[in-house]
UniProtKB/TrEMBL annotation:
Enzyme Commission (EC) number: 2.7.1.4
PROSITE patterns: ROK
Pfam name, any one: ROK
UniProt xrefs under InterPro entries: ATPase_NBD, ROK, ROK_cs
Name recorded for this polypeptide: Fructokinase
Top enzyme class: transferase
Keyword annotations from UniProtKB, A to Z: Carbohydrate metabolism, Kinase, Transferase
Lineage: Bacteria, Pseudomonadati, Pseudomonadota, Gammaproteobacteria, Vibrionales
Length: 297
């Protein structure tokens, strides 16, 4: 069987999947505050999970961060005490097991590609449209991390075809660049667009609710975001042409996206006819941990 970990800033979740994808064990615990405690906690959970299912398991870990291909050390993790450590080696040493580690967006995409909304596709792109805009690329049911471990980091491309007239003022990104895709096509991006137009602060679900009621400015913000999504997905498709694009995160619950995205994307593609497949994630919030477990298969 397969153990998957989902590492968050406040909690660690662990699950055991059997080879048919059924959950055999699940547990969550608060995230420890130091690196040594973290290693100890994860090893303890592996022992507990294996005792519970009565067999030795493969172990995969999904975290918001990456293993640097240059050094093997964790970088960009939001649990900052992990950064700069050789987590793979330390966990392997302490547990005596092989440990697979991947970025949580890659785990999301893998979960959906193995037995979720992308299970029929050979090339699957998973896009998490939440607070930010993460992405993961899966080729033949394997994570494609890339030479520099940036495969799928499409949220930090510059928004294609940006113009102040269409997209409003320049939006700086925390990564140090301007006008990254995630500054526009995320829950946060939609909230910013609404504030720019109205000078009011509203959460993304409230903007969507207003749009559904026919509010003119909320509709304008939605239409602008759909066009920005169209440009962003077209840029991806002109390179990859994936079989399926699976959407996760808060915005993926906006059902209108699946109606509107194909026609918003087509004008920016290098083809006049296209079979575009946008699907909603099948496993929702469980995709990350399921994908982590599938890393070890
Ligand atoms: Zn950025």
């Amino acid at each position: 069987m397969l153990i998957g970990f989902d590492i968050g800033g406040t909690k660690i979740e662990v699950c055991v999947l059997d080879h048919d994808g059924r959950t055999q064990f699940k547990q969550r615990t608060p995230t420890p505050k130091s690196y040594d405690q973290f290693v100890e906690t994860v090893v303890g959970l592996i022992t507990q999970a294996e005792a519970q299912v009565g067999e030795s398991c493969q172990v995969g870990i999904g975290l918001p961060g990456a293993v640097s291909p240059a050094t093997g050390l964790i970088k960009n993790a939001n649990c900052t005490f992990l950064n700069g450590h050789d987590l793979q080696a330390d966990l392997a040493g302490a547990s005596g097991k092989i440990i697979h580690i991947a970025n949580d967006a890659n785990c999301f995409a893998l979960s959906e590609a193995v037995d979720g909304a992308g299970k029929d596709g050979a090339v699957v792109f998973g896009a998490i449209l939440g607070t930010g805009c993460g992405g993961g690329l899966i080729l033949n049911k394997q994570v494609w991390g890339g030479r520099n471990a940036i495969g799928g980091e499409w949220g930090h491309n510059p928004l294609p075809g940006y113009s102040a007239a269409k997209d409003g003022p320049v939006r700086p990104c925390y990564c140090g660049r301007d006008n990254c895709v995630e500054q526009f096509i995320s829950g946060t991006g939609l909230e910013k667009s609404y504030t720019i137009k109205t000078d009011q602060k509203l959460a993304a679900p409230e903007v969507i609710a207003l749009m559904r009621e026919g509010d003119a400015l909320a509709t304008e913000c939605y239409q602008q975001m759909i066009d920005q999504m169209g440009r962003s997905f077209a840029a991806l498709m002109n390179i990859l042409d994936p079989d399926v694009i699976v959407l996760g995160g808060g915005l993926s619950n906006v059902d209108e996206l699946y109606r509107d995205l194909p026609q918003a994307t087509l004008p920016y593609l290098f083809t006049d006819v296209a079979d575009l497949c946008f699907k909603k994630a099948e496993f929702g919030d469980s995709s990350g941990i399921r994908g982590a477990a599938w890393l070890g298969r």
